[in-house]
Each structure stands twice: as structure tokens, then as C-alpha cells.
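[recover] target loaded
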């Protein structure tokens, strides 16, 4: 009887999460139109155990200006702040997002501070937004890809789960010959490491191609940085991906009587 009760509770929790996710997305229906390209969910046992125990979740958001934010946007409008609000509503647990973004940084820069700014915080999850500045500042990104693999190996050794967030759609990014190389490398790293891959590029591309949003709605006049809507869709859809992933085993792996 106990297993049946736990399973029923887990399924009810999953249903509640999906309802809350739909409610969160209802505030900006344009984001919802790209939900199907956000990425595949994968189990997150670390988060599952904390959700089961009713404990708070600590997430480190590592990245560049897409994570740190830009001066013309309020801190509450950038994706880590959106993620913190929406994810807390979806999983019904306290969520703490430590914003460790630094504008202009490359993968090598972030690797250099990985121990201090990420591993030392003992996070339950790391969201790594990466690759844009490497593409824009380098002629060839092979060394950046090698550094990405080193960082992922260190996080794996520490048993810290990761979400890889790929590049944004933006005129400056789309013109660069290294963009498809970096995108492919991020996708391959996610497959090889078995970590979540959040398809930011595909989300933004889909919103533009379906005319749910114009490029100017998602990207600022500088041709690179995300607008408030870009951050809103990123944070909201990422929260949904993480919430569903963290409940997968809880809902479906328990035996049923």
C-alpha cells in the first residue's frame, strides 16, 4: 500500500507541476509557441531527492551577459530571476539561483573560475550558458570546445548535474562561421555527458520563423543581447524543462501495486 500511495502522490505532483507550468506560460503566450523545441527532459536525481524531502534547491547560473544581464534591463527581468520565480512556483519548493554570469567572458574565462564560483557553492544543478563570446571573438573554436569538455569533466567528477544552454539567435551570431560548429559541439557534449541541453537557439529561431515574435522583439538594437521577452521565454521554458526533469523518476520509476 505504501508504494501505491507514494506513486499516486508523485503522479499528482507531476500533474500539479504541469498545471503550474501552463499557468506560468499563460502570462506570455508567445513563449508557449516554442515549448516543443526547448529540449528533451532527463532525470535529475539530485533535485528529485530534495523535492521529495521538501528541501530548497540551489542552482548556479554560469555564463556571460545573457546570464549577468545588461544595464538597460532590470535584474528581475533577466533569465535567472525569471527562472527562480517560475521554478519555485512549479515545484513548490524554495529555489535559490546564484547568478555567476560575467559579460564578455569566454569558455576559458569561465573554466578558470569554475572551482571558486560554481563548485565551491555546492549547487544541486548548474546551468551553463556558453559559447557566444568564443564564436564572436575567435577564428575557430576548437580550443573553446576542449575547455568546455574539461569543465564538464570536472563537474561530472563532483557529481553536479548540468544544463547546457546554447547560443542565442541574433544577427551578429548568425553571421559568424563558427556558430554552427559551436552549436554542434554543445549538442554533442550534452549527448556524451548525458546532461540536459536547453535549445535556446531553436526556441528563438522558432519564434521568429513562425512569426510569433519578430527579431526585434527578442534581440536588442545592438544585434546581440536579448530583450526582456527573450529573457522571459528563456527563463520560463527552462523552468519547465527542469521541473519536468526533476519529477521524472519520482513519477514514473516507483513500482505500482
Amino acid at each position: 500500500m505504501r508504494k501505491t500511495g507514494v506513486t499516486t502522490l508523485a503522479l499528482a505532483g507531476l500533474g500539479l507541476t504541469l498545471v503550474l507550468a501552463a499557468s506560468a506560460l499563460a502570462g506570455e503566450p508567445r513563449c508557449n509557441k516554442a515549448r516543443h523545441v526547448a529540449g528533451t527532459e532527463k532525470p535529475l536525481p539530485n533535485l528529485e531527492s530534495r523535492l521529495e524531502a521538501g528541501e530548497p534547491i540551489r542552482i548556479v547560473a554560469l555564463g556571460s551577459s545573457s546570464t549577468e544581464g545588461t544595464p538597460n534591463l532590470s535584474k528581475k527581468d533577466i533569465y535567472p530571476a525569471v527562472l527562480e520565480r517560475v521554478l519555485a512556483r512549479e515545484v513548490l519548493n524554495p529555489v535559490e539561483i546564484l547568478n555567476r554570469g560575467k559579460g564578455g567572458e569566454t569558455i576559458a574565462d569561465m573554466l578558470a573560475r569554475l572551482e571558486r564560483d560554481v563548485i565551491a557553492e555546492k549547487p544541486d544543478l548548474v546551468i551553463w550558458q556558453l559559447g557566444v563570446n568564443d564564436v564572436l571573438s575567435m577564428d575557430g573554436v576548437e580550443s573553446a570546445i576542449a575547455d568546455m569538455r574539461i569543465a564538464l569533466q570536472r563537474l561530472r567528477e563532483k557529481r553536479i548535474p548540468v544544463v547546457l544552454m546554447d547560443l542565442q539567435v541574433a544577427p551578429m551570431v548568425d553571421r559568424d562561421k563558427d556558430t554552427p560548429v559551436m552549436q554542434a559541439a554543445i549538442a554533442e557534449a550534452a549527448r556524451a555527458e548525458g546532461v540536459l541541453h536547453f535549445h535556446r537557439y531553436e526556441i528563438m529561431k522558432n519564434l521568429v520563423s513562425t512569426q510569433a515574435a519578430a527579431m526585434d522583439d527578442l534581440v536588442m538594437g545592438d544585434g546581440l543581447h536579448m530583450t526582456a521577452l527573450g529573457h522571459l521565454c528563456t527563463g520560463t521554458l527552462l523552468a519547465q524543462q527542469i521541473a519536468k526533469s526533476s519529477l521524472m523518476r519520482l513519477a514514473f520509476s516507483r513500482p505500482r501495486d
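[recover] notes: DSSP finds 15 helices and five strands in the chain.
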